[in-house]
Structures are given as structure tokens and as C-alpha cells.
Amino acid sequence: MKCYLAWLYLLALPGTVGAQTLGDADSTDRSIPLAGPVLPAPMPIAPQKNSEPEGVKWGSLFNHSFRFILLEHAYRYATEPATRDPDRPFLGGYIDSIGALHGWADGDPFYVNYVGHPMQGAVSGYIWTLNDSRYRYVQFGRSAEYWKSRLRAGAFAWAYSEQMEIGLVSEASVGNIQASEPQYGLVDHVVTPSIGLGWMIAEDAMDQYVVRFVERKTQNRLVRSLVRSGANPSRSLANVLAGQWPWARSRDEDIGASLIQPNESPRRIQESTRPPGVAPFEFAAYAYAFTASTGVCGGGGGSAAFRIDPQWQAVLDVSGCNINGLAKNLSGDSLTYMAGPRWTPTTSGRLAPHAQVLLGGNKVTQELMFPAKKTSLELLARNTGAPPPSHDQYTLQFEANGLAIAAGMGLDLQINSALAFRILDLEYTHSWLRKLNGFAAPNGLQAKMALVLRMGNW
Length: 458
Description:
Elements: H1 58-79, H2 81-84, H3 90-99, H4 110-131, H5 144-166, H6 187-217, H7 221-231, H8 233-241, H9 266-270, E1 281-291, E2 296-309, E3 312-323, E4 330-343, E5 351-369, H10 371-384, E6 395-414, E7 419-432, E8 444-455
Antiparallel strand pairs: 1-2, 1-8, 2-3, 3-4, 4-5, 5-6, 6-7, 7-8
Helix pairs in contact: 1-4, 4-5, 4-6, 4-8, 5-6, 6-7
């Protein structure tokens, strides 16, 4: 979210990181003071695991999440006039916001939808990992424990995102933003948790291969702390919200963790592996593109697949894209929602093919803006002291709905029992949708690439 950059302000707040010192025994990171000689840590005789009980620390989870909510709403209130003056009664405006949700785009620029909101999803996911004691010490790698922990974090990121979008303390209630055009799209409901999960995994990989590389090359603790914070910005903000230093890592809490191999975790050593099986549930976050009548329509989406048979799955799929190449002052988006069966033949190798047929609907939403009318209305409002013009006074909205069907095949590269990478998914899509302002229905071949997380077989 746009308020992400405001996290630096928290560094000065009492009661958060300011309550700790770099030499404090309660600090999460006991090894990174900013100055002073570097003394080698004594090698322990045996790993000293934390004695905290396994499970989710719900009290601190809600505490840290509430701090994040306050930070986001404070930034919105300080920077958005429409949030400070919603011009609607609280309950009525909230109901209007919920009822207005439809379409894909929400009027925000690309970097807000596809960078800011995924970072919000990653921050909330890291808040979960800080409070999930069972998987707190996992590290990026092929271990099933790591991917299970990130799937749990992704589920919490989705719940947090829904709260921020349509919950009781959300954009819909505080400011009634989604009641006004064009803020009613569903893009954030899908992109925030799905791409946010991918963002988390990318930061974990950076921490494993870049941050650790720097730490092996230098003992300058200022450099090491800056690299840790800069290479993992979402984790850094989550740490601050939890009252820790931005560069804190769970591996620093337990000196015995240094005895664990990079791709293993203390929990993995203690747990026995489960027999391999077919995953009853899969979640995929993907990016896709197709050639439209006006140009390329690119976007992303998510799908959930439920196992109903060793070779068959029931699939739910929601995706959307921004339409490029429309006429001047005309913007638009396409939302697709489908469900259907997927065939997954039994294979013994790493490559797993599938074929599916999905049926559902396609909705195209467009907005035509009149800049000259907007300028004249704003000038009139300034001269007369009237409120600024509402968005719908200088725009026109267009919508079209139609039945849609998609059939295609894909190939997954199975990394382990918890993770797969969908190398390519080719689908032919046909939509019975009338042409809207030069944009024809998305009929033709679509190409997708996805990250697939599996749950229940480990």
C-alpha cells in the first residue's frame, strides 16, 4: 500500500524498537550493534532451542496486526481528502462500499495495485511468521516445513487484506472509499495475498543468497544491518511493527541454529516425514497475458484446486487484467471468474501435466474521462467555495457481461511435495461478450506462469 514508506516513522516511536538497545538481552538480533569490536561467539555444546510452546501466539499476532492497521489508516487519513471527508453516514457509506464492489480495476495506478498492495500482503505475512512458533525457524529451501509456513502466512495475508478492504476497520468503513467510482474493483482482493506471497518468497530467497553472502564477506555490522533491512523491506517493516529492529532475524535468537544446515530447520529435525501422497488442496498465484483487439491485456490472478480423486480436481479461478491500447481518456479492465474440472494423470517424475475445462463469466468495465469538464468543474468549485466535483460528474462508465469458457493444458515442475512451478499454461478462451468501445471479448490463446503451493500431503 502507498503508506508503506511511512514505516520509518515508527523507528522514533517509544514502546517499539526504541524500547530496545542493541545490547539488550531481549533484543531479537543480539549480534548487530552498530559499532565496537567483533568477538566470535562461543560454540555451544548442543543446540539451545527456545522453550516457547509451539503454536500461534494469537495475542501478539492481533497486537502487531492492529499496529499495521493503524499505520495504514493514519497515512490514508493524512494524505487522502476523501478519507477525511467521506460525505456519507458511517453505516450507510459502509453498506454502499460493500455493495459497489464489482469489476477488476479500482482506479489506482499500476505501482499501487501491483507493487504497493503485494508488499502489504508480504508485511502481513511476515507478521504471521513472527507469531507462528511452530515454523519460526524455517529457512528458504526445499523443505516442506518452509513452504507450509509460507502457505499459512499467505492465508493470513488474505484474511488481513479482506479486513483492510471490506472489514469493520477498512477502506470501506473509514472513508467509504469503495463507494465512489472507480474504487470498486476486486483487484486488491486477489493481488494482495497472491502476489504478496510471491513477494515474501522472493525476499526469503534474497535473505538466503544475497544477505548471507554479504555477511560471509564482511564483519562490518553497520553494512550487514543495512543490507538485511534493505534487501527485505517487507520483513523489516513487520519487525518494526513487532517492536524489533528492522534487521532482526529469528536465526539470531538461537545460537544453536548455527548448527543447522541452510536448507533445514530445527523443527524439520524433530519431525518425522509423512508418507508421500496426492495433495488434497492446491493454491496457485499466476501472471498472464493475452492479445486483445486493442493491444495486450496483462494482469494476474489466483486459483484454488480441491482434490476429488487421485486424478481429478475441482478448480476455482479468478483473474483480471488492465486493458492497454484504448482510445485517449478511456481506461478499462477485464475480470474473469470460472470453475470446472482438471485432469492430473499420475506421474513418477518431476514434470506433471494437466488439462482442464473451465466455465464461468467475463466482465469488462471501462471509464471515459472528460478532462476539460473536470477542469471547469474544479475551477467553478474554487471560485464559489463549493465542494470539489465528484468523480462521476466528469466520467462515463461502461460495462458488459458475458458467458466465458476456457480449455487448455499446462505443465508443472515439481520442486518437492509442497511446491511446484507451473512452467507454462496455455488456454484457449472464448467469451460471448459484446464489443465495448472497440474492445472485443478476450477470445484466443492465453499464456500463464504460476507458483503452486500444495497442502495436506506432508
